[in-house]
User: Which sequence fits this backbone?
């Protein structure tokens, strides 16, 4: 049994903490006066974090429900879909009592599923939630650098959501050209119904979304650089903060490029320019546009698109690093290597984008460089994986729900990362490109893995957000069904993809080469339905626990070293009453000198060695 | 890892290399559109003709081929991809409307089709469709009826075919862009090529859609030339000492006038060449008309047309002493003047060959 280190939190923070004269200004109390300014147009980072999280959850349910509908089409193509006609209306065509999903709407569902999950759930819902919650709390800051911009960030996201949601209900249907929105398909309403008003709304929505990301990102970066409490040097920051920090930089550098692509696309759609259009004959008519290149759009898109997958996965990596360390009761292995890996991944993510385009008609010579850069990313990724495993090795592991999800993340990241080595190799990509192998790869490595990171984060920091715990039994059911189910869904897809079955097919009937996998498709669909049902269980657990969960009795239930656990159980505006904690050590003093853990605000003890 | 990268790149660069300039290769063209593929073969000249998307007319010129480019005249559009085994194939990949992807899953061939930016893929089929079916014969997965509803249908392995698909989302019919690919022996391939008709010749030639309507193609000129000299040479070598009359088939005059059309030059030049070759013969040019209009006018017209031809020959250096001309008006019809067809045949220029009598 580790002996308890003698220190007095009240003395260390309230008396010896850093006095930033917070309460000399009394506007703090006006801040949370009414219901609207407290819960709706809030400028408090903790409330905004919850807003991002709950909005993200709503979108996750919508996006996942869409996937169930198109999985039904793939798994049970013969069965009637009349039962969902009340919801989908004219998109279910009933003939002889058998309802069929219209192919246009199948593609709209696939497109919306991708857009919603990538942007609204895994970018806003993940990074938006935890950057907001943890950056000020773990750095010892009162709030974000600009709480007002932070509020705007959420409301731009909200507006983006409204516009996208509206597009689901227009008569020509939402955009149906894939989440990457490649022109000319996305530029020509003549080529697809969804490329009409649906695409206009899609562009407006995502442009609003980018505004949200940029407002948030500037804030995160500024806060990390300027509002750290006394003693919190960069090298003492928890890995979560490093991850959010680099994520925000990636977003700031890459999202504007996407918007420039969108602007050019809007011009091609509305103003008769030819950025991406050339020599097109569509719908019985030759268009006047010449000289543009559809591949230019792909470059612009993937210049965001690739960093985007790291924008999704880095926060998850940060959360997992923290959760693993806390629940293994061990310092994270190779802290500096972890930070350098994050930086290396962030840098490399900008020079690998064309690996999405090996088969797009670009000069094959170019691919040589992108293959090399892409596979170099395996190095920092592998460093992180080895460090997570080594952190677990010999740890005093608590197998609670957050820890299970964090370990699940590592498992998913390894599985998905290995298939990435296949795909990054252009020679293999000739056969794998745009098949189910790709679908399996990216769902595992950035879809499921990022969700696992997010779940680990939610279960771990739920007490900080709501002052109560989530139900542990339901959490474990959630975990086991989800990890087994996720592998059940995506493992067979690797096989189908290796056999050459292309993604984005409404039906495999017309091809002898693709229609042999009916049983496997059925299996995948059933697994997807079960996993979806279990996520509903999570949502119920989440909302039930907000009001009825087990109450948090102590400030620091996990025995963590970081500063967020030194605030009141329900921290008010400004996070700390009175002085801010000052920091004297890094965030990973677990099991040091016979002590279970030493929080960051505890000064170096007499004779203590290796104070980071 | 290093091995994977290096080896992967070596393979990549081998697979993606374009063909050399002198390399013997079959080049075909695949054009994707919503929602099918058109496959164009270069025909006997082994060259694909020019295309221009503004020339595309549905049902008339589906690919926008420029008919003024003679390389287009023998190109044909096939409903299946036929290829001989063991020969290198270069597929030129294009698209008409949106992005598509030329995907042959059995061959590991995949490349985006981009409007306005042709791409390519080079590959060599190594197993014929028949051989592949034979391989599947003993495979448990390929037994049973290919169509379970029809007891007469082939076994699965017998019905196997290579397929072409689309692998880039292109709209609501993306999943249905199938074409059959047949890999056959060199002989079967050649036999198949024989059966194919040039799209231009069978659909376009001399219709209103043909910009070359009424003009001779190079191939026509060659055929006419061959025919002319065959007839002329035969006449010269025949033992018959009677004067021989030959038609000048491919010359025309503007309606009601004695002015030669541009097309007439080829046949007349042939005649010049023949007269240069056979220096000892002299000819008489005879003009004939149909019976439409006044016969006095017809007589005049036939005379002036015959003498126009005579003057043309003199201009090209044939000695006037070897030439004479005569008009017969409408007195000597070849066929009835009651039909359009007959009248066309009656309007004509012929020439009578006087061989120099050897004594």
Assistant:
């Amino acid at each position: 049994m580790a002996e308890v280190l003698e220190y007095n939190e009240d003395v260390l923070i309230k008396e010896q903490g850093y006095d930033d004269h917070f309460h000399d200004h009394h506007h703090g109390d006006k801040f949370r006066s009414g219901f609207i300014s407290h819960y709706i147009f809030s400028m408090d980072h903790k409330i905004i974090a919850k807003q991002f999280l709950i909005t993200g959850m709503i979108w996750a349910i919508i996006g996942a429900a869409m996937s169930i509908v198109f999985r039904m089409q793939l798994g049970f193509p013969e069965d009637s879909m009349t039962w969902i006609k009340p919801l989908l209306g004219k998109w279910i065509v009933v003939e002889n009592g058998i309802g069929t999903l219209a192919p246009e709407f199948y593609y709209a569902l696939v497109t919306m599923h991708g857009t919603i999950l990538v942007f609204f759930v895994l970018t806003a819902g993940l990074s938006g939630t935890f950057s907001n919650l943890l950056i000020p709390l773990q750095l010892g800051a009162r709030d974000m650098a600009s709480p007002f911009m932070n509020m705007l960030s959420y409301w731009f996201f909200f507006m983006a959501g409204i516009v996208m949601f509206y597009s689901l209900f227009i008569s020509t249907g939402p955009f149906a050209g894939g989440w990457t929105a490649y022109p000319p398909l996305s530029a020509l309403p003549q080529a697809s119904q969804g490329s009409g008003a649906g695409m206009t709304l899609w562009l407006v929505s995502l442009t609003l979304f980018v505004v949200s990301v940029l407002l948030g990102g500037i804030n995160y970066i500024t806060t990390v650089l300027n509002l750290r409490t006394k003693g919190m040097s960069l090298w003492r920051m928890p890995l979560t903060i490093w991850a959010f920090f680099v994520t925000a930089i990636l977003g700031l550098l890459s999202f504007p490029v996407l918007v420039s692509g969108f602007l050019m696309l809007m011009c091609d759609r509305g103003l008769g320019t030819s950025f991406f259009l050339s020599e097109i004959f569509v719908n019985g008519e030759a268009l006047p546009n010449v000289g543009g290149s559809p591949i230019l759009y792909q470059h612009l898109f993937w210049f965001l698109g690739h960093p985007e997958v790291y924008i999704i996965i880095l926060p998850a990596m940060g959360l997992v690093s923290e959760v693993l360390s806390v629940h293994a009761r061990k310092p994270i292995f190779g802290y500096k290597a972890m930070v350098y890996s994050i930086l290396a991944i962030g840098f490399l993510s900008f020079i690998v984008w064309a690996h999405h385009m090996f088969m797009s008609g670009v000069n094959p010579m170019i691919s040589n460089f992108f293959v090399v850069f892409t596979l170099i990313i395996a190095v920092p990724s592998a460093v992180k994986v080895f460090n997570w495993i080594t952190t677990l090795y010999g740890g005093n592991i608590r197998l609670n729900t957050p820890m299970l999800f964090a370990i699940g993340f590592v498992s998913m990241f390894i599985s998905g990362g290995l298939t990435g080595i296949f795909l990054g190799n252009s020679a293999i990509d000739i056969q794998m490109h745009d098949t189910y192998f790709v679908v399996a790869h990216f769902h595992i490595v950035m879809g499921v893995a990022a969700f696992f990171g997010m779940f680990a984060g939610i279960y771990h920091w739920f007490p900080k957000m709501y002052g109560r715990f989530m139900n542990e039994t339901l959490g474990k059911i959630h975990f086991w069904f989800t990890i087994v189910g996720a592998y059940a869904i995506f493992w067979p897809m690797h096989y189908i993809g290796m056999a050459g079955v292309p993604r984005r097919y409404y039906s495999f009937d017309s091809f002898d080469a693709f229609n042999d996998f009916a049983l496997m498709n059925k299996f995948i669909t059933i697994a997807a339905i079960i996993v979806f049902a279990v996520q509903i269980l999570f949502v119920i657990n989440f909302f039930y626990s907000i009001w009825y969960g087990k109450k948090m009795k102590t400030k620091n239930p996990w025995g963590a070293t970081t500063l967020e656990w030194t605030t009141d159980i329900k921290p008010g505006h400004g996070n700390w009453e009175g002085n801010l904690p000052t920091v004297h050590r890094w965030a990973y003093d677990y099991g040091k000198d016979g002590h279970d853990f030493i929080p960051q605000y505890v000064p170096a003890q007499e004779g203590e060695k290796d104070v980071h | 890892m290093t091995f994977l990268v290096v080896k992967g790149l070596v393979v990549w660069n081998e697979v993606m290399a374009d063909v050399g300039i002198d390399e013997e290769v079959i080049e075909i063209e695949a054009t994707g559109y919503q929602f099918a593929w058109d496959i164009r073969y270069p025909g006997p000249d082994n060259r694909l003709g020019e295309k221009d998307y503004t020339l595309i007319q549905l049902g008339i010129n589906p690919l926008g081929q420029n008919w003024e480019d003679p390389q287009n005249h023998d190109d044909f559009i096939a409903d299946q991809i036929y290829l001989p085994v063991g020969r290198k194939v270069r597929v030129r990949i294009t698209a008409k409307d949106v992005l598509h992807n030329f995907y042959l899953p059995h061959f590991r061939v995949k490349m985006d089709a981009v409007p306005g930016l042709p791409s390519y893929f080079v590959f060599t089929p190594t197993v014929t469709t028949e051989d592949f079916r034979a391989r599947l014969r003993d495979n448990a997965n390929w037994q049973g009826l290919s169509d379970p509803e029809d007891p007469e249908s082939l076994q699965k392995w017998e019905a196997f075919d290579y397929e072409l698909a689309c692998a880039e989302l292109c709209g609501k019919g993306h999943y249905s862009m199938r074409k059959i690919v047949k890999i056959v022996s060199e002989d079967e391939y050649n036999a198949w090529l024989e059966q194919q008709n040039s799209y231009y010749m069978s659909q376009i030639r001399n219709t209103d859609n043909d910009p070359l309507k009424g003009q001779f193609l190079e191939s026509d000129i060659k055929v006419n030339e061959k025919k002319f000299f065959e007839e002329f040479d035969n006449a010269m070598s025949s033992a018959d000492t009677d004067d021989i009359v030959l038609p000048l088939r491919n010359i025309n005059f503007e309606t009601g006038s004695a002015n030669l059309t541009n097309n007439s030059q080829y046949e007349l030049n042939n005649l010049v060449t023949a007269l240069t070759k056979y220096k000892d013969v002299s000819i008489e040019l005879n003009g004939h008309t149909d019976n439409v209009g006044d016969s006095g006018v017809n007589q005049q017209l036939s005379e002036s047309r015959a003498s126009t031809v005579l003057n043309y020959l003199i201009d090209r250096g044939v000695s006037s002493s070897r030439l004479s001309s005569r008009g017969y008006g409408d007195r000597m019809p070849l066929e009835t003047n009651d039909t359009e067809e007959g009248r066309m045949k009656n309007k004509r220029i012929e020439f009578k060959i006087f061989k120099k009598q050897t004594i």
About this structure: Residues 253 and 261 of chain B are 5 Å apart (CA to CA).
